[in-house]
Structure formats: C-alpha cells, structure tokens
Amino acid sequence: MSADTTTTTPPQTPAGAPASNGHTAPGPRVRSTFHSILEGGLDWQALPMRLFVQGNQKFWDPSAIDMSQDAEHWQLLDQGQKEGIAGLAVQFLIGEEAVTEDIQPFMHAMAVEGRLEDEMYLTQFALEEAKHVEAFRRWFDAVGVTKDLHYMLEDAAQDGEPVGGIFAKLQPEAMGRLWTDQSPEAQIRANVVYNQFVEGTLALTGYWAWAKILDSLGGLFPGMREIIRYISTDERRHLAWGTYNIRRHVAADDRMWEVTKANLDEMFEHMKRRREALQADTSPEAEARRERSRAMGTGPEASWEYQVSRLKRRYGAIESARGAATEQIEHGLEEEETDEEGYAALT
Ligand SMILES: [Fe+2]
Ligand SMILES: [Fe+2]
Fold first, then answer.
1. Cα 327 to ligand 2 centre (Å)
2. pTM of the model
3. CATH code at 188?
4. pLDDT tens across 132-178, in order?
5. Residue 21 falls inside a structural domain
6. How far is the CA of 199 from the centre of ligand 2 (A)?
7. Residue 8 located in a structural domain
8. Whole domain around residue 131: which residue ranges?
9. Do the beta carbons of residue 232 and residue 207 sit within 8 Å?
C-alpha cells in the first residue's frame, strides 16, 4: 500500500518533465485481484474512507440554493462594489474550474499505487470541485453577469505570470506530472501547490475576504453566504486529505520533509513576488481599489498577514509527521485536526 521508497531517490524533475523513475505511465492496466473483495475488504478506518463517508453524509445541491435575493441585492451596489465582488468571485470560479480538471492525475497516481480508499475519496473530491464551479457560475447567472470576464484577470498577469496566474501554469504543471511520475517527490510537489497552497492558503484567504465583505454589507447576499458555507465544509475535507497524503510520505521517509519544505518555501517566495508586483501598481485605480478593500477590512496589509499565517500553519501540520509510525498516520485521529481551524471557523 505504501509508496515505493526502497529505491534511491531520483533527482527532482522539473514540473512537467517526463518521468524519470520508471513508475507506471497511463494506459490500460490488467487486474489480477479486486481490492474490495480481499480479506477484510475496505479499510473503513483509513482517513480517506472516513472523509468519503462524511462527504456523502453532507451532500448538498448547488441548484437548490435560492439566489433570487442576491439578484435584487446586486442592484443596490455601486459600480466599484460590483467590480470588487465580481473580481473575487471570478478568482474563485476560475480556481474551481482549474482544480476540477487538475485533480484528475492525482486520482490516477493513487490507482497506480493501489490505494483504492484514496482513489474513492478523490472521486468525491473531484465531484465537489465540479459542484463549486456550478455554484459560482449559477451565482453570476443569477445576478445577471454573463459577459466575458477575462478582463478581470489582467491584474494576475502583472507579475510576469500568464493571465490566470497560478491556475494557468504552476498548478497544471505540478499536477500533470502525476500522469507519468507518481513518485513521492512528484506527489509532494503537486500536493504543496494544490492542497497546501491553493486550498490551504489562497482559498482560505479568499473565504476570509468573503466573510469580511459580506459582513460589511450587512444581511445582503444570502445565496452567496450559503455557497461559501457549503464549499468551506468540502474544502476542510480536501485539505485534510492533502495533509494526510503528504504526512504519510514524510513519515515513511524523512528525506521527504526536506522536499516538502523546499516546495513550501518556493510558494512563500511566489506569494512575496506577487505582493510586490501588486504594490508596484500605484495607479489611481489601484489606490482606489486598495482604499475600498481597507474600508471592508480586507486591505492588502490585513490580507497579507492572514495569508502568511495560513501558509505557516502548513509547515507545522506536515512536519509533525516526521518519525511517526505509518499506522498512526493511516488510522490516527489527529490528521483531521491538523489544520482546518480556518475552515472550521467558517462552517
Ligand atoms: Fe473547491
Ligand atoms: Fe478543494
């Protein structure tokens, strides 16, 4: 069940590079056994199975959310408020679309490793990301914003990244590598970019901003509030799985902590560069945007502080797995509590 760590660790291949370690490439796989009818069947106590059961119990339907009041409330906003709220919602919508697509190679990696419980959980994970796309898109449709919104992504292009930022290049490269390379190093790279950084840092900061903005608007937008509440409960499980996946690699081979740390440090540098690029924009429009966000409690200073605190938590949540017994990681109870206070506060 565990990763193959008996061979020497190959040098870390750059994101998107071809496989270097001989792990199985995609294609038809011949079955000789069926995991679910082996003696003992499924491991109900494994963290992914517990998350899977929880997710089924908490199933929700985006089309059942009433967004009619949001449509009325949208008309009460001035142009600046509309741009600000639509801008945040656009970041979420493109992010949800990207994570729906990019999670698929992780499912493949779990299949190659023979981890059916993880694979089952990731099918639910992918479905939930697709529901998040549905929810945000329905909200735009409900408030009547149906024009092309790519112009809102221009900010993200300013620090030398392609339009769409991390979702256009960094994340698809890190995740796409898993199609041909399922090594612990490749899984850790994908996990740090996707689970620890996008979900555990950027998305959490986004939810924090939503909470502040919606509070500053009093009782407006009940539909969006409900969307955020539901999505937060899903994301708590996603991050719990991501943390479990990376912790088991670190527990199995202590060298994987250095790999993890190097990737987390790189995300920290990425975040700093992005902030500097935004600060460099001193145009009157940018200043006005900053002032507007400060008034809602989501100014660049407060937002940076929150973002850094979330990323710092990821180091501790993973490092504590060093030297732990595999059994404790696979079946321990504490993984579900290793983060997630940020999400828990929203649910
Ligand atoms: Fe999501
Ligand atoms: Fe997610």
1. 26
2. 0.87
3. 1.10.620.20
4. 999 999 999 999 999 999 888 865 455 555 566 789 889 999 999 99
5. no
6. 6
7. no
8. 66-346
9. yes
